[in-house]
Amino acid sequence: MKKTNEIISDKIAAVNQILPHTNKWAWDLFIDGAANNWMPTEISMAKDIEQWKSDLLSEDERLVVKRCMGFFAGSESLVANNLLLSIFKYVTDPECRQYILRQAYEESLHNLTVVYCCDSLNLDVDEVYQAYNSIPSIKAKDKFLMNISTDINRPDFNINTLEGKRELLRNLITFYVICEGIFFFSGFAMLLSFNRQNKLPGVGEQIQYTLRDESLHIKFGMSLISHIRSDNPKLWTKAFEQETLEHIETAMELEVAYAREVLPNGILGLNSDMFINYVQYIANRRLEGLDLPAAYEDVQNPFPWMSEIIDLEKCKNFFETRVTEYSVGTLQDDF
Ligand code: MN
Ligand code: FE
Description:
binds manganese (II) ion
């Protein structure tokens, strides 16, 4: 059978015939992702440990770190689960699947970052790993994501109807655009603002590499959505568009509640309104990426340094910044 360029299908167990290229855009993103190797545990946490033990950080600052870790602990795992349980199943194009396999590996590194930060700073494991249960605003965001994954995994779900395909599209929008594209960005901005004041440099460096990974995930997700949309012109109706806008609006309400809960008094001269503005600015950009009108008028980026970090990260080579020899694994005789 000749390879087609159809991206989604019900041929979930088909052979992944990569060549000849039919969706080379996805292959190219896979190559870009594969060039971004890094390893959380090779980043020194010595300074962070020293600062965490000292009285350099206020209680409000510590709370932000613990809540960010709590949110990432739950949501990074939800992204990975959804990727393998829902997206990989129906996105059957071999080149897209190749990207998804790479992405799944990167998500496992992001889980490692949370574990490594917990271990290094000796954080209360229950406080971080139970946050999805015990912190109302985190619980609400995680529940919002879980509902979407659970829905697609019900036994009678398939993508043979337009409605089924729309549900898959909603899943992609929820995870790539809302979770990775919007929810993650308040945490990135919060943790990187420490870095700007020479606080928690090890956490900051790991977040920089995570941000670089996530930027590619979003790029892939956005392209995936737009290709599925143009391949299936009947999918994107006015009603679906309206529903998508409402879905994003709900997510933004959850995000505002989260910022208020995590930043009761502000940190480092920054307050919750600034983080909310930043997320609104990001949401406008995501809407633009979906060819939808901006939802927040007159919102300027309160953190232009975030854009600088995102641009700089594109050319950062993890290996060149390490002094130690990096082992990429050696084959042993007796395996
Ligand atoms: Mn991730
Ligand atoms: Fe991701």
